[in-house]
């Protein structure tokens, strides 16, 4: 108010001063904070609320800034106090680090402007200090008759013990300006300590309540709970009941389902859906009587709760939505039978629901190959065949249903049973120790098929006799035998077989040895390989030599062509291979080889047959009546002319 508006300016100076003070009392005033926001530490996914109130004339306007700019975000909400004294900045859900910042409450009017800053810190659950507040029991949905007392409970813990405050419809609850009707209980017991008690409840008390626990480490909000204040009416009233309760469903992963819930009563109840403590139906859009929950792309099984509420009560019904899952791993297979070539397994299904079939996976334990699979096994017992005797294998089982195949069972190791050896002892070789004593060596069979119990050595000077008539000796625990009492200068034929606990293996090919000191035994591993159309390369392993006296001085090679009886003999110096040339193409040759020392020629090997390849003919044709011959043809003609 301006001083000239006072009509008594001409009065004495003292009176003018007093009147001026009265006039100035009606002047405009700048904003002044009644409540400023305080620093807060929240948890990711939770809630943070900053309260700011100011007074002034005219009434100041409250604006919220983040980093100097006005806040604008879907997760940021500004809620005004009913009396216009200020507002609450609510951030939900909190995100780190994007929400961590300095926030500013700016109060301004035509006279002036003032501001107050606060800091928000957001922590992940794994970053929370040990004493961070925890809501042990949050408020629950409650319906109360008007004029009755309603108590909203809250239990919280932390170190130090957190202070508990309340928010209603996102604004702090004022417990000081209602003649004690709304108060917070301070009893030391839990959950009474911090509970909100509302006496003589009114319709204005109806709303969404949150319990807030705060200590030096941070702030945590409870899940919201609604308080409904119902009217006292004399009309006929019926509590809510479900006329169509929700039903359980089973769906495929990623599938969709609609769950219908219908409730009746007088008054008709509101119907909402919840998943645990989470409201799935917006409070401001809650249907009456019927609510259909539409679920899409469902990946996890869950229980959904239908809540029907009226002023006469609250009822709940649960619908179990089960997502069909892959089968569980079957029990570890057990070996019930075994043979030399098969293993029989049994196992527990490991699944309460039936499975479509099983897959048996197996592989050799000593192999790096992937598992082989036997598909479509319909029972929990199966014999895996086609295995090798006396071999270690790994087995595991996989269950399959209409969703797919589940994880494999624990692997089990099993060994097939023994059987007689499939092959004869290898590298049978020998030499004379004296004119009447020979020593024979051999290697274990390639396919032993079990634990070799021993060997039988057969020998004779008459190979036309059945082997059962030959002399024989048994050997255990060794791969050699000393044969004594031989007739000097006689040629002996020796065979060896191995046996397991199951039976005998096949006999080895004949080893020929002459009972004469210093005469070499047979060369071993004698074989031939065609190198061209007219040449064959022969190779062998020399017989064992015992000192200078039995040193090999050369070899004798006998060979014949096809069915011809005439044999050709070639002598050559000590070596381990020999290239025979000038042979006929496309012809089978038979070879025998013996080693020679200064004491004489040893026994010949068994016959080896090798065939030379067919000649590749070059094509010729005439050009303009002139015969044409390829380069190969001309080369052959030139060679023929030289000969």
From TrEMBL:
Its main location: membrane. One of its GO terms (cellular component) is plasma membrane. Residues 31-121, 133-228, 240-322 form the Ig-like domain. It is found in: Membrane. Gene3D superfamilies: Immunoglobulins. Residues 329-419, 424-520, 522-615 form the Fibronectin type-III domain. One of its GO terms (molecular function) is protein tyrosine phosphatase activity. It comes from Albula goreensis. Pfam families: fn3 (PF00041), I-set (PF07679), Ig_3 (PF13927). It comes from the Eukaryota. It is a single-pass type I membrane protein. Coiled coil: none annotated. This is protein-tyrosine-phosphatase.
């Amino acid at each position: 108010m301006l001083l000239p508006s006072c009509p008594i300016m001409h009065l004495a100076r003292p009176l003018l001063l007093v009147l001026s003070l009265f006039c100035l009392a009606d002047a405009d005033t700048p904003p002044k904070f009644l409540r400023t926001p305080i620093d807060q530490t929240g948890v990711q996914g939770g809630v943070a609320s900053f309260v700011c109130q100011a007074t002034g004339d005219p009434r100041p306007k409250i604006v919220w800034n983040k980093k100097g700019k006005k806040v604008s975000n879907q997760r940021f909400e500004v809620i005004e106090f009913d009396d216009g004294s200020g507002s609450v900045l609510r951030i939900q859900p909190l995100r780190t680090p994007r929400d961590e910042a300095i926030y500013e409450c700016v109060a301004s009017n035509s006279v002036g402007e003032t501001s107050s800053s606060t800091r928000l810190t957001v922590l992940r659950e794994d970053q929370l200090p040990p004493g961070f507040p925890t809501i042990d029991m949050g408020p629950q949905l409650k319906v109360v008759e008007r004029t009755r007392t309603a108590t909203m409970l809250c239990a919280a813990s932390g170190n130090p013990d957190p202070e508990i405050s309340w928010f209603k419809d996102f604004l702090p609850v004022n417990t000081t300006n209602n003649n004690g009707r709304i108060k917070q209980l301070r009893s030391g017991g839990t959950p009474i300590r911090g509970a909100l008690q509302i006496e003589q409840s009114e319709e204005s008390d109806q709303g969404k309540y949150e319990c807030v626990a705060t200590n030096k480490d941070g702030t945590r909000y409870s899940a919201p709970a609604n308080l409904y204040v119902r009217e006292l009416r004399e009309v006929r009233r019926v509590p809510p009941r479900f006329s169509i309760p929700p039903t359980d469903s089973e769906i495929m992963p990623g599938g969709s389902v609609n769950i219908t819930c219908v409730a009746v009563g007088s008054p008709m109840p509101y119907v909402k859906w919840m998943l645990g403590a989470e409201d799935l139906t917006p409070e401001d859009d809650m249907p009456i009587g019927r609510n259909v929950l539409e679920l899409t792309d469902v990946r996890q099984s869950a229980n959904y709760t239908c809540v029907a509420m009226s002023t006469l009560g609250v009822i709940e019904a649960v619908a179990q939505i089960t997502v069909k899952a892959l089968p569980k791993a079957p029990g570890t297979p057990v070996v019930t039978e075994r043979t030399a070539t098969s293993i029989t397994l049994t196992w527990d299904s490991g699944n309460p629901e039936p499975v479509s079939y099983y897959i048996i996976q197996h592989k050799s334990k000593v192999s790096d190959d992937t598992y082989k699979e036997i598909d479509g096994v319909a029972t929990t017992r199966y014999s895996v065949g086609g295995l090798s005797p006396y071999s270690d294998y790994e087995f595991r089982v996989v269950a399959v249903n209409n969703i797919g195949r589940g994880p494999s069972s624990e692997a089990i190791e099993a060994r097939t049973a023994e059987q007689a050896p499939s092959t004869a002892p290898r590298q049978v070789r020998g030499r004379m120790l004296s004119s009447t004593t020979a020593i024979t060596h051999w290697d274990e069979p390639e396919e032993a098929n079990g634990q070799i119990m021993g060997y039988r050595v057969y020998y004779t000077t008459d190979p036309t006799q059945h082997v059962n008539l030959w002399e024989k000796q048994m050997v255990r625990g060794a791969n050699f035998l000393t044969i004594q009492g031989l007739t000097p200068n006689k040629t002996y034929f020796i065979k060896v077989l191995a046996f397991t606990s199951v039976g005998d293996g096949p006999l080895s090919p004949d080893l020929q040895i002459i009972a004469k000191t210093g005469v070499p035994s047979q060369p071993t591993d004698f074989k031939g390989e065609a190198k061209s159309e007219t040449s064959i390369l022969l190779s062998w392993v020399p017989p064992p030599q015992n000192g200078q006296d039995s040193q090999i001085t050369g070899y004798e090679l006998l060979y014949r062509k096809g069915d011809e009886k005439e044999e050709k003999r070639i002598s050559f110096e000590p070596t381990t291979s020999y290239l025979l040339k000038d042979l006929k193409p496309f012809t089978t040759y038979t070879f025998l080889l013996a080693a020679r020392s200064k004491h004489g020629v040893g026994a010949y090997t068994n016959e080896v047959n090798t065939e030379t390849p067919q000649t590749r003919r070059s094509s010729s044709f005439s050009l303009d009546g002139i015969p044409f011959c390829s380069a190969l043809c001309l080369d052959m003609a030139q060679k023929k002319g030289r000969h």
